[in-house]
Amino acid sequence: MSVAFGPDELRFRDEVRAFLDAHLSAELRRGAALTPGVFAEPDIARPWQAILEARGWLVYHWPVSAGGPGWSRVKRWIFEKECAEAGAPVLPGMGLKLVGPVLYSFGDEAQKAEHLPRLRSGEDFWAQGFSEPGSGSDLASLRTKAVRDGDDYVVTGQKIWTTQAQHANRLFALVRTDPDAKPQAGISFLLIDMASPGVAVRPILSASGDHELNEVFLDGVRVPVANRVGEEGQGWTIAKFLLENERGGSSFGPGLVADLRRLIEATGPLQGELATRAVRLSLEASALEMTELRTAIELDAGGPPARRSLITKLVASEIRQGIDELAVDAFGPAGLQLPVERPFYGSDMPPPIGPQAAQPAAARYLNSRAWTIFGGTSEIQLTLIAKAAVGL
Ligand SMILES: Cc1cc2nc3c(=O)[nH]c(=O)nc-3n(C[C@H](O)[C@H](O)[C@H](O)COP(=O)(O)OP(=O)(O)OC[C@H]3O[C@@H](n4cnc5c(N)ncnc54)[C@H](O)[C@@H]3O)c2cc1C
């Protein structure tokens, strides 16, 4: 699909393309192409983060006041589109997209000065400690407690499904500071040093055998009160701000369009029912991409956030699962291979059965079941849409 961008946008697109040609190495592209989870692993993500930071494009979605490049929404969309088309690694979002905006929006000057540079340099790797056993969709019921003791909180509880916590040296967490207040009002937002005594991380292997998720146990962990972001009891407001960024902070369409194109390049032309599914997915992904671009254009023109933005995470999750399901079917028996070795781009990988792109297909298929769960399940998304967009 072609879009009639103006000369400034076309110049910008060419600049991004030239940058990607020059700096996105074959090794990084290969690593990204063979990543079966949502985010690149640190061996791929760290070097790409450093390259983007050196160019001044790492925090492209942050405002100028927080160190961003001041791009319009359309330019952000173009950047995401070009990165997706070039097959750039998808950087973990917990730091750059989630806690970063929280820090520059709600953090005090000391917190911003301490954490934002370390986040950008990659010195700090953040994990998101929101969900708990029994408190996922019903997040406000969370029970991890933080009891004030002098200048510290003493934090005790358990977090679960904590993405890439095994790599993290920092955790941002929702904790209950007031057990007597109504559930939402008793929650605060803390920044926790993962090296603190009492923090333990236990892996959760997904159905594919990948290690992306973890349980995080907090047993009497002392966290300075200075590490609380915002006021005591303001955690729920901050969490809502953060979850909006998690569900709608960047475009989903370009990545889906590019992944589908690469799949068809790897399988060759599809026939019959497979071809029908590919065409339907292609139309849906392109429609999502254009919907996101349209919303970006409206926001740049000063319009209010469109209600249609509420559907993007829901729709993107279904297209993602459709593409990964199509891959398994289209590769035939080769799409069912599920090696135990990791990473897929590592030297220990057995030779692929069939094309290289088929090797991670089964792992991708299994991992992408999670798309309709994380960041708010599809049922919860539908409820939000029913209330906010349809007025039910
Ligand atoms: C791959 C992956 C990565 C994740 N990463 C993180 C992370 O880094 N940090 C973090 O904090 N969390 C993370 N999560 C957790 C995620 O946010 C939760 O799994 C999600 O919010 C759902 O919560 P739950 O698992 O407790 O399921 P539940 O809330 O128990 O839901 C179970 C089922 O009931 C349905 N349901 C629940 N309530 C309602 C309702 N009111 N109306 C209709 N249906 C309902 C749900 O849709 C679902 O189908 C991750 C999850 C996954 C799968």
CATH fold group of the largest domain? Butyryl-CoA Dehydrogenase, subunit A, domain 3
- Strand order within the widest beta sheet: 1-4-5-8
Structural class estimated from helices and strands? alpha+beta
Major sheet: size, sense and barrel closure?
4 strands, mixed
**Could you give the distance between the termini?**
35 Å
**What is the number of strand segments?**
8
Q: Strand-residue fraction?
A: 5-15%
| Helical percentage | 40-55%
Q: CATH homologous superfamily of the largest domain, by name?
A: Butyryl-CoA Dehydrogenase, subunit A, domain 3
Provide the succession of SSEs: HHHHHHEEEEEEEEHHHHHH
Judging from the principal axes of the Cα atoms, what is the shape? globular
Name every ligand kind in the structure: flavin-adenine dinucleotide
Provide the domain count: 3
State Rg: 21 Å
The number of helices is: 12
**CATH structural class of the largest domain:** Mainly Alpha
Task: Give the averaged pLDDT, no decimals.
Answer: 96
Low-confidence runs (pLDDT<50, min 5 residues)? none
Which architecture of the largest domain would the CATH scheme give at its second level?
A: Up-down Bundle
